[in-house]
Amino acid sequence: MFVSAEGMHYQTADNRQVLDGTAGLWCCNAGHRRPRIVEAIKAQAEELDYAPAFQIGHPKAFELATKLRDMAPEGMEHVFFTNSGSESVETALKIALAYHRANGQGERTRLIGRERGYHGVNFGGISVGGITNNRRMFGSLLTGVDHLSSTHLPDQNNFVKGMPEHGADLADELLRMIALHGAETIAAVIVEPVAGSTGVLIPPKGYLERLRAITEQHGILLIFDEVITGFGRLGAPFATDYFGVTPDLITCAKGLTNGVIPMGAVLSTPKIHDAFMNGPEHLIELFHGYTYSGNPIASAAGIATLETYAEDGLFERANELAPYWEDALHGLKGLPHVIDIRNIGLIGAIELEAIPGEPTKRAFECFIKAFEKGVLIRTTGDIIALSPPLIIEKEQIDQIFDTLATILKELD
Ligand code: PLP
Which atom of ligand 1 lies at the shortest distance from residue 120's CA? Predict the structure, then answer.
């Protein structure tokens, strides 16, 4: 149980300090309890608590949308607010379907995701997602969905620093799907530029470029789910900037408000936005939206968060720290149980050999021991996934990896 937090640390109910190696859940990129964000929330609660999200506006939502547009990759001119990453994904998928319909191509209804993809927990997200346990309990899911192969090639890309060499050709599977289904039936492809929740899978060199080229050639929209890669995680505002590949829609959440208040957003190009904006004033353009879209307090938190990132130069900081992070992380190579290490920006993954017949148990033991030794890590399957706040100091990076080295040597 955590009872309070400050900067890089949580405090437990029994008064211990725990170093945050995961930015909460990949969301507190500026660290905890940042004064500007706390003040903005207090002030907004005293000024305007709520305004209807339909037909009515309020200035903070537009101020945040403008700031987000200014920070977003070139060409992303419009913002649709949601309340989580899952809602951003549902929103982006619906916009993709509706866009084609608005353009007279209503037969484009097929959605393509990827094995091991994670796009939240709502029906669209688990349908295009590819994490078996997140899907198998919940029926037949959306129809008309297909999945590309995961880009994980452990035999060819082991202990790689940064982007792996092998696997770009896996994007060509999309050509097979186009041949099978017909491009004219496919609405969109959705991928995480870096797959996070499944255990950190870094895109092979050239893979995202190929996906972009194929989707563009066949009139298929490309959606980047940047819920964890947005807001500096790779040392750039978005993964789109980092990889230099621009999709048609970007989903984001988490770091948008530093995790403090639930909020997400979908960013889109004018081409998509304008397709809906052709009716008379009194008609609704897109039949989609949430009661809390652009909530005033969330908007105030978002504005203060983006200002904090800029004022503290946190994205540049992440970029400067990335080589140190990479070296420290890969220093664990050769320790017991470690079968792969992967990294990009301020993301790291250590894959452990599973205990035969007891998958996830070894990583979970590691999580408990790290917690006891004052470091918060996250595990998924038998993979340790790390994503610290971007304010982390070098000594704290050392603390994370020294603690993990000790634990790995102690584990059975
Ligand atoms: N998409 C991606 C890529 C994510 O990593 C996550 C959460 O980790 C989500 C969507 C879902 O976000 P939320 O938990 O805010 O609904």
Answer: 11
Among 298, 331, 316, 326, CA closest to 390: 316
Q: Is the Cβ atom of 228 under 6 angstroms away from ligand 1?
A: yes
Q: Where are the alpha helices (DSSP H) in 204-243?
A: 207-217, 239-243
Provide the CATH topology of domain 37-311: Aspartate Aminotransferase; domain 2 (3.40.640)
- In a mutational test of the pocket of ligand 1, which residue from 27, 28, 81, 86 has the highest number of ligand atoms less than 8 Å from its CB? 86
Architecture of the 2-21+313-410 domain: Alpha-Beta Complex (3.90)
Q: Where are the domains of the chain?
A: 2-21+313-410, 37-311
> Is the pTM for the entire model greater than 0.90?
yes
Nearest CA-CA partner of 114 in 146, 147, 69, 143: 147
Q: Using the atom order of ligand 1, give the atom closest to the CA of residue 25.
A: 8
Reading the chain (412 residues) residue by residue, the pLDDT tens digits are 999 999 999 999 999 999 999 999 999 999 999 999 999 999 999 999 999 999 999 999 999 999 999 999 999 999 999 999 999 999 999 999 999 999 999 999 999 999 999 999 999 999 999 999 999 999 999 999 999 999 999 999 999 999 999 999 999 999 999 999 999 999 999 999 999 999 999 999 999 999 999 999 999 999 999 999 999 999 999 999 999 999 999 999 999 999 999 999 999 999 999 999 998 989 999 999 999 999 999 999 999 999 999 999 999 999 999 999 999 999 999 999 999 999 999 999 999 999 999 999 999 999 999 999 999 999 999 999 999 999 999 999 999 999 999 999 998 7
Instruction: Find out whether the beta carbon of 342 lies less than 6 Å from any atom of ligand 1.
Output: no
Residue entry with tokens 């205990």? 355
